[in-house]
Specification:
Blueprint (H helix, E strand, L loop, with lengths): L6 E2 L6 E5 H6 L10 H7 L8 H33 L8 E7 L5 H12 L8 E5 L7 H7 L13 H13 L4 E7 L4 E10 L4 E5 L21 E6 L2 H16 L18 H24 L8 E5 L5 E7 L2
Parallel strand pairs: 3-7, 3-8, 4-7, 8-9
Antiparallel strand pairs: 1-2, 2-10, 5-6, 9-10
């Protein structure tokens, strides 16, 4: 494979910038394991993911992550050998962060599928931080229903405890299950993680710094983190488009929490979506999510058409 030429950031930057064409060259000798049907099934509402985007962006990213995971495993084994102890290497944890509607859920699902096709990382689990939102009843009690998705709406301690168990090598760890249809935690339902090779953790605020100096940040328990970035104006458009699509689809289910929006006109739906964006999602992005971008190991920069235009990779 040819060497990669990168446009470097300023000398004091933590990152090097790799443009789309150069990043795509990394996949020149890699076989794309997903069919077009599988790509479509992984694509979220409003995403424009296609096989070209998978080939040129996410296939090389999945390969690099698999190499990182293998290196971490080898280091763990070498450390155990040095200490003359049993190898206790634990799952490699990848965090995926970014705004609502930026496409991070699709990316997390895609990475799960792609990484599981590499020989060194066949067992990959995905956990979303939605499961660590406080139940709606508790959010109502705290007066936080209008701030759902903001850092204070999550049980951060439960998420840290969950990841601590994962990284300590516990044979089985359970996370709460969140239903997007019900817009709430489902009592007595769990996502079970049983010591896979990789755990992907996807959520809005996973790169938040700790609330106090002596606290553990969620990202302290990551081995690698990805931030999905785009201009706020583009994300606003994607958010509104997704709301309109959901109004014609999932919102029409009588069991959906959002069924009340199913019969809005196009103009009413657009106005409602913009209200949610301007009052909740944009402030959360501006105040809490975007400021954590610099904490990521890798940043995917998306253009207005949802395609990744460049990659920022933290210097090793």
């Amino acid at each position: 494979m040819d060497s990669v030429t990168v446009d470097t950031e300023p000398a004091r930057s933590l990152y090097r910038r790799i443009d789309r064409a150069e990043w795509a060259r990394l996949a020149a000798d890699l076989d794309q394991p997903l069919s077009e049907t599988e790509v479509v099934e992984l694509r979220g509402i409003g995403d424009r993911l296609d096989s070209t985007e998978v080939d040129e962006v996410y296939l090389p990213l999945s390969r690099m992550l698999s190499l990182y995971a293998t290196a971490a495993k080898n280091l763990g084994a070498a450390t155990s050998d040095f200490l003359h102890t049993e190898d206790t290497t634990t799952p490699f944890v990848v965090g995926v962060a970014g705004s609502v509607a930026v496409g991070k859920s699709t990316i997390a699902r895609l990475l799960r599928e792609l990484m599981s096709r590499w020989p060194a990382t066949p067992r990959v689990e995905l956990v979303t931080t939605d499961g660590f939102l406080y139940p709606n009843a508790e959010l109502e009690r705290r007066g936080l229903m209008d701030r759902k998705g903001f850092p204070e709406s999550y049980d951060r301690r439960a998420l840290v405890d969950f990841l601590t168990e994962v990284k300590s090598g516990a044979p089985e760890v359970r996370a709460p299950f969140y239903s997007h249809m019900r817009y709430d935690i489902v009592p007595d339902a769990n996502v079970v993680v049983r010591r896979p090779d990789v755990v992907i953790v996807e959520g809005l605020n996973v790169l938040q710094p700790p609330p106090a100096p002596n606290d553990v940040a969620v990202s302290d328990l990551f081995d690698f983190s990805v931030y999905v970035d785009a201009a706020p104006e583009s994300i606003r458009t994607w958010y509104v488009d997704r709301f309109l699509a959901l109004r014609k689809g999932a919102f029409r289910n009588p069991s959906s929490y959002f069924n009340v929006f199913a019969h809005l006109t196009d103009d009413e739906a657009r106005t409602t979506a913009l209200g949610y964006w301007n009052d909740i999602n944009l402030p959360n992005l501006t105040e809490n999510i975007a400021p954590t971008r610099h904490r990521a190991t890798l940043v995917l920069n998306k253009g207005a058409n949802h395609d990744v235009e460049s990659v920022l990779l933290r210097k090793v």
